[in-house]
Amino acid sequence: MSEKILFITGRLAEKQLRQVLEKMEPDFYYQVCVLGVTVAALITTDMIARRLTETAGADRIIIPGRCRGDIEALSTHLGIPVQRGPEEVKDLPQFFGKAAHTYDLTQYQTKIFAEIVDAPNISVEAILERAYYYQQNGADVIDIGCLPDTPFPHLSETISTLKQEGFQVSIDSLQDADLLAGARAGADYLLSLTSKSLWIADEVAATPILIPDRHGDIDSLDASINALQAKNRAFIVDPILDPLHFGFTESVVRNHLVRQRYPEIEMMLGVGNLTELTHADTSGINALLLGICSELNINHILATEVSQHACRAIREADRARRIMFAAKQQNALPKHISPDLMTVHDTAPFTQTLEEIQFLASQIKDPNFRIQISPEGVHIFNRDGLRSATDPFELYPQLGVEADGGHAFYLGVELARAEIAWQLGKRFTQDQPLNWGCAAIVESSKIDLHSFKPAGTTMKKKHNTAE
User: I need a surface site. Which of 130, 263, 294, 386 has the fewest CB within 10 A?
Assistant: First the structure.
């Protein structure tokens, strides 16, 4: 028997809610209850408890996504499960799709080696601080990078300190002495050994990471791989990923050839050669490279955050590996799994057409400003009419807030957000910060813009059509 769902909304959103539900062709029965409130964003759970006298035999109630209050208490009061819907009514199809397709993002397959490239030039305390930062952003192993012809007198102390703090550690050098000292101090991995330095693996317990004797020569890996396999030693192979225009495509093919030649060995991909050496948003680069890792079963990456534009690369790689793992487990495309890598754009930035915004504006009877965006630009409206522009400065003379500094400041912030969202193709919701995915940290203690409202005035949130 099909589920019966009761949708709670306000008068202004009723028409659009019914249209969306009808187009969905849902596999459940539904009814829409208009609670007697014009703007659904103003509905609270207490209001629903007081006013909802008939649940029409519903098995579940969906309330506006921005409805405030205790939904558990409301569920208990009504004796029916109550659930908040999406913030935008146009997201209802995805909302019900997600209910059927949930993805576990706690799991991943690819380990992140986060390299501290300038370790010889900074103190043990600074290295430890950076190690904790990388760990918090998803790193599994802290890679201590050595520099050519640069003394590293605190190498052993660095690694032993990191081990005492519970970190997995790798030592990254082409100098035999550094590799030996690092492994003897407790390093778990050695980057990087060739057939000429493979003897080091016999001296220490650390897991060697192998590179070709000569750049691009994957045949030179065969002897090292065979030798370690004969000794039943764990190892990882890094065929080396090259930057764009310096052999990138050929290096991807090289990684593929190594995987074909050795289907079961562990492999590493040095993603920093792309994220650091390409001036493009690193979230997309990480998505692509971790997708390659997923297809080729490459279970280790070496990541860096040296360039300023790559300052979120490790966090992005962490999200990318989880998304790709979930997609692979479900035999699905890496779409609609998580928005964390949609840092600059959104999948559906415009929730209203210009015609829908014009209709909504015609229904408003109060002086509070609502701000929305459409493909045509930024729109602000209240009972006095709709104003539209692509530059918020064009709107200011039409708002009549010159004598109200607090209100003007508030509208300035919201219109600036709206302009950025319109320019980039991001979702804009009034009174909420833009969502930059994993590219930014949104602090919980932000300034409350409503504190800038003048005494005796009301600055309500805009009508949200999902509610």
Answer: 263
